[in-house]
Amino acid sequence: MDFDRIKEKLNILADAAKYDVSCSSSGSKRTNTKKGLGDSSGMGICHSYTQDGRCVSLLKILLTNHCIFDCAYCVTRKSNDIKRAAFKVQEVVDLTISFYRRNYIEGLFLSSGIFKSPDHTMERLISVAKKLRLEENFNGYIHLKSIPGASDELMREAGLYADRLSVNIEIPTKSGLKLLAPDKKHEDFMKPMEKVKNEIIQYKAESKLIKSTPKYAPAGQSTQMIVGATGESDRDIMYSSAFFYKNYNMKRVYYSGYVPISTDPRLPAIGTQVPMLRENRLYQTDWLMRFYGFDIRELLNDQNMHLDMEIDPKLSWALRNRHLFPMDVNRIEKQQLLRVPGIGLKSANKIVQARKFRKLNWEHLQKIGISTNRAKYFITCDSREKELRDLSSEHLKQLILKTSHSKFRTDLSPQLSLF
Ligand code: SF4
């Protein structure tokens, strides 16, 4: 093996892969076999994130950064004057195994530029996963990128070797995609997503009848959207996201703040700050939608197209809906508790448990771990103490902001003001 050449390829292709944030490795139950290597079950795979939120726990590389497409937002686009490289299938297999043995990684995240054709690229990605599983008995985590436009048959095969598959929608709306990636069709993304969803359902159903049915993409599928490359509102982004969760059984939608890499006038100029705060607010909204029972239309709608960057989306919703508060923590259902600013999933459960034995007062709530400095404006409890609730929403917001310590408060990106 020419180690210098491999090292050079690794530098180029790992660097090109860093813009993809859809590499969470949770949710897989693949366990080791007697003669196997690696184990992606339970905590066998751990996440490691760089400061800006990028995952680094997997060997995260592109098979190649050659591409026949010219998507304006992508560093790998064919018109970009960059150094190109391509791994051979066996080189990726060898690298994965040797990094795994050295304990550098717990798995592989493999994506690729599209060379020759979507099918040709997908075939090579599958070859890597297949060799790892069948020839190396590798049971570590494998996340494969699904190439838009690849055939149904290849998508079916990919899921037999990968733990997770993902097609990155990248630009949240059809119009944005048309503007920045005119060669691509919206349907090219939807088709593989649909195929993966159907295969997962089918294999799960079969495994109930026939125990030996192989697992198909046991960690499900995910997608990624770039935030801030085009002028989509937060509402547009989150409505797209809700659509994918509902229609394609997505495990996760990832939001990646656009990193300016091009002088193309259609895109934010180089040097524009990455919208990290906006990215964070979108993740919070996603969380509220998936785990707190919020309908996305409650959080974002025609009157509220953008998220408030100063406060989190739940507090923002509560301030717009003061007529629903205060709520009595000793009486309301858990679903209502989850709507109170300062009360999270764990603390809602603790409240439900604790109030079986006594009526809760402020002291109890503080002991449970409720953030009473914001919750106190939205709840009542077993106490005569009255909080200031006759303030306007704007006053209340300022009061809460004064006493909160958000790590993002001084980090408002100028890119946010563009839209
Ligand atoms: S097809 Fe993928 S890799 Fe190629 S330019 Fe578009 S986004 Fe980049």
Automatic annotation (TrEMBL):
Keywords from the named record: Iron, Iron-sulfur, Metal-binding, S-adenosyl-L-methionine
GO molecular function: catalytic activity; iron-sulfur cluster binding; metal ion binding
Database matches in InterPro entries: Aldolase_TIM, DNA_rSAM_put, Endo/Exo/Phosphatase_dom_1, rSAM, rSAM_sf, RuvA_2-like
Domain Radical SAM core: 62-199
CDD domains the UniProt entry points to: Radical_SAM
Family matches, as Pfam families: Radical_SAM
Cofactor: [4Fe-4S] cluster
Domain of life, per lineage: Bacteria
Alphabetized NCBIfam families for the sequence: rSAM_link_UDG
Protein name: Putative DNA modification/repair radical SAM protein
